[in-house]
C-alpha cells in the first residue's frame, strides 16, 4: 500500500504569516518612541521570526516523539534556570525575570517554562488516565498531589522574581487541563473553597489590618497587591496615554507610524494600543478577527483528537494563548489590571516569540497526525 503523504496545516502557516506582518509593522511604528540603544526592534523581530521558522522545521523533522523522552529533563532544566535567575540575574524594573546575554539581548526562562509545563502536565495526565481508566478517589487524590507539586515548583520560583501574571497563567492553564481530563467535580469544589478561604484571609488582612499584612507577608507583596487592586482607577501615564491614543483613533486611525502620544512598553505590553491608534476601530476589529480565527482553528484541531496526550497538550496551549490575549488587550483598554503580559505573536520579544514558534511546531505535528489514515 502506498504511504500517504503527510499534509501541513497551511491555514495555520498563513495566519502565522499574517501575525508576522502585523507584528513587524506595529513594532516599527512604536519605534519612534523607543530609546535608540534598543536598535531596530522591527528588524530584530523579523530575525526572531526567522529563527522560529527554523525551529518549526526542526520540530517537524523530529515529530513529537521527543516529548515523552525529554520532557522531564526539560522540566528540571527549566526550574533550575528559574532558580538561577533569583541568584545571579541583575534586577530590571525591580524584577529578576531575565538573563542578559551580551550581544544577543535578554532571555526570559518563564516564557519557555509555560510551554514546558503544559507538555509535562499533558504527559502526566495521559499516563495517569492510561494506567487508571476508572480511578478511585484515592488514586485521583494522589495524582492531584503530584500534579499540584509539578505546577507549584515553577510557580513559587516565578512568583519570587516577581512575575505574578505568569503564575496566574500557570494555574489557570493547569485547571483547564484538569477539567478536560475528566477528574471528579468534587476536587474543583474543594479547591475553590480552599482558594476562596485563603484569598479571604489575605484580602481581609490587606484591607483591615495592613500593619499585620506587612508583618506577615512583607512590603513587596503589599505593594504588588496594592498595584493589582488599584488598577480600576485608571491612573498613570502608561494607561492614560494608551487609552487616549486608542480613543482618538476613530474608524481608520491616525495612520501608520503616527502614534499621537508616548507610553512606556509600546513595543511589548502595550503593542495593541499602538496598532489601534494607527489603524483605528476597523483595523482593530480585523486584528481581533485574525486572533479569533487562529484560536478557533486550534479548537477545531483539538476537537478532532481523541482524549489523550495530544488533546491535553492542545487544550493547555489554547488556554494559555487565550488568557494572554484577553489579559493583554483588556489591560490596554483599562478593563483588567496591568500585569506585564505580552500579546502572543505580536509583541516584541525573542524569548516569548521563540516559545510560541516551538508551540506552533508541536501543533503542526499534531495536525499532521490527524491527517493520516
Write the layout of secondary structure elements.
Layout: H1 10-30, H2 41-62, H3 66-88, E1 99-101, E2 105-107, H4 109-131, H5 137-159, H6 164-181, H7 185-208, H8 210-217, H9 219-229, H10 237-247, H11 271-303, H12 309-332, H13 350-371
Antiparallel strand pairs: 1-2
Tag the structure with descriptive keywords.
globular; two-stranded antiparallel ribbon; 13 helices; mainly alpha; 373 residues; disordered N terminus
Outline the structure in words.
The protein starts with 9 loop residues before the first helix and ends with a helix. The longest helix has 33 residues, at 271-303. The chain has a two-stranded antiparallel sheet. β1 (99-101) and β2 form a beta hairpin. The model is unreliable at 1-5 (pLDDT under 50). The chain has helices at 10-30, 41-62, 66-88, 109-131, 137-159, 164-181, 185-208, 210-217, 219-229, 237-247, 271-303, 309-332, 350-371; strands at residues 99-101, 105-107. The chain has one domain. The chain is globular. Helix content is 71%, strand content 2%. The chain is built from 13 helices and 2 strands; from the N terminus they run αααββαααααααααα.
Structural class: mainly alpha
| Number of alpha- plus pi-helical segments | 13
Number of domains: 1
Q: Give a count of the beta strands, DSSP E runs of length 2 or more.
A: 2
Low-pLDDT segments: 1-5
Order of helices and strands: HHHEEHHHHHHHHHH
Strand percentage, roughly? Answer: under 5%
Helix share, percent: over 70%
What sort of overall outline do the alpha carbons produce when their principal axes are compared? globular
User: What do the pLDDT scores average to?
Assistant: 88
- For the termini, the CA-CA separation is 12 Å
- For the biggest β-sheet, the strand order reads 1-2
Main sheet makeup: 2 strands, antiparallel
Radius of gyration: 21 Å
